[in-house]
Design brief:
It is built from three helices and four strands. With 125 residues, it is α+β, with helices and mostly antiparallel strands. A four-stranded antiparallel beta sheet has the order 3-2-1-4, with no helix packed on it.
Length: 125
C-alpha cells in the first residue's frame, strides 16, 4: 500500500507530514452507510505526524511512503482485535477473582480493554 504525504515542515532531524485520511470516503458509493464515511463528515480529514528527515526533501514537497501488506495486517490486528481480546481476558480474570460479583467482572473487562488501547497508542509505533 502506497500513500502520498505532503511535507509541511522541516525540523533538524524530522519532517512533519500531512496526509488526507479519508480521501476515498467521499467518492465511495457506500459512504452514507459506512461508519468511517459517516465519521469522516464530523472530524478533520487529515493526519499530521513526524518521520525521519530524508535527504533533499523541502517543505511543500510530496513524498511517497509504502507499507507492506503483512505490516498493514499486523497494525489492523493491534487496532481492532487486540482490544477485544483484552476485553474478554479482563472479563475472564474478573470472573476468576470475583465469581459472584458481576460488577467487578465488568470493571475488569473494561480495564483490560482501555489498558490495551493505551498500550497500543503509546508503545506501538
Amino acid at each position: 500500500m502506497k500513500e502520498q504525504f505532503k511535507v509541511i515542515e522541516i525540523q533538524p532531524q524530522t519532517m512533519k507530514l500531512k496526509v488526507n485520511r479519508a480521501s476515498g470516503c467521499h467518492s465511495c458509493s457506500a459512504s452514507s452507510g459506512c461508519g468511517t464515511g459517516i465519521l469522516a463528515k464530523y472530524f478533520e480529514h487529515y493526519s499530521v505526524f513526524n518521520k525521519p528527515l530524508q535527504e533533499g526533501v523541502m517543505a511543500g514537497d510530496f513524498v511517497t511512503l509504502e507499507i507492506s501488506s503483512s505490516e498493514l495486517f499486523y497494525r489492523a490486528f493491534q487496532l481492532y482485535i487486540l482490544p477485544l481480546l483484552a476485553l474478554f481476558a479482563g472479563g475472564i480474570l474478573g470472573d476468576g477473582l470475583y465469581p459472584e460479583q458481576e460488577t467487578m467482572q465488568i470493571a475488569f473487562a473494561f480495564s483490560g480493554f482501555f489498558t490495551s488501547l493505551l498500550l497500543t497508542k503509546y508503545f506501538v509505533k
